[in-house]
């Protein structure tokens, strides 16, 4: 009897032991998995933190695919065995904070980036009978970092104003623009350095434009294009290509003669190639600034830094009144290269007056050439110049006469080619009574939201130009982790 009772007790104990094993294994599973997920949570926190700092240091000012791709790489590196990243968001905003100092409170601007990430993982132990995690678990984390940009102090500036001098800029607009540039120049430039002084500080340049840009060669003002042209367009019309035309010569001829010579070879009284050249010239520029189809966009960008005035005859006297192409460059303005001579710069600026239509692409290309010429200038050693902050500020009051030309040049890489030539170069755009957003300019700048400005009130023109200069003069800044937390 006793033996039977003991057997029954052992059987009950076995059942109790089996039942106890379930929570015991559950506790083991939860301990192992819980520790693992706590580690994953911490690793994700580290990853989100590193991603936030990386995005903040890059500081593109937007949340494009670049920022998400960068953040994802950091998360993938920090957190192993991810089934998938179920959520990854990068958001940004700008703000201002007060920082106490011995000299009083200082207002500092910042750009804040927040990286939010959720990652899914397969559990090691998952069972419907034993307490455990679900087959797949998701963990989440967020991190916030801020970039506090510093305005360049000891670093000198090179600023090129690509300024609209078309006819619509006459009267109050050109007065306001010249006054704003005058004030900025007064603030940036010191008196011309002594002859034995090699140190060059801030420098400014201006490349005014209407239909084209203009240059001063000695006392003569010439009108120039900085584009390259095709030699296979309308070749059946004339064997003479656009770049073979002696534009300097034909600009001196009367409209009546050039028309007759282009129409009838017997009317050409000058050199033997007159008829063919006139046929090309007439088709290329007849009725407008440029014929879109004649332009060689690839070569225009490939040879962007070659000053065409120095290399060929794609220019003519600007003051050739009542002649064939005189309407292209009637404005009294010209390019002033980078200089630290305030008096000379302001004297030139005062004499300039606008006229004509709008072709900013000519000025953008010439501005890039001016910027590069400032580096190779023998007066300035390249090492010193490479440490400068450079910016091209495009100031315009209206849409392009041929917007398709600007859009095509930008789409083919004109602005990227310019930026890639320098260690660091900022391009900003200011619309004067004209909104340049959603045009070719939006693809020319890095950050359309902040690099393109639109001013309706001319009294604010100086402030808006200064804002662009402030943005262009910022250093990469200091990136600091603001906080991180878990969901």
Q: Can you characterise this structure?
A:
The protein is α/β, with parallel strands linked by helices and 487 residues long. The protein has 2 domains: 2-148, no CATH class; 157-475, von Willebrand factor, type A domain (Rossmann fold, 3-Layer(aba) Sandwich). The protein has helices at 2-58, 65-78, 172-188, 247-250, 255-263, 274-285, 297-302, 308-311, 342-351, 360-376, 382-386, 403-411, 414-420, 448-451, 461-472; strands spanning 84-99, 106-122, 136-148, 157-163, 203-206, 213-217, 220-224, 315-317, 336-339, 389-396, 425-432, 452-455, 478-486. The strands form 3 sheets. The protein has a 6-stranded mixed β-sheet with strand order 9-5-4-10-11-12, sandwiched between helices. Helix 14 links the parallel strand 11 (425-432) and strand 12 (452-455). Helix 1 (2-58) packs antiparallel against helix 2, helix 3 packs antiparallel against helix 9 and helix 3 packs across helix 15 (461-472).
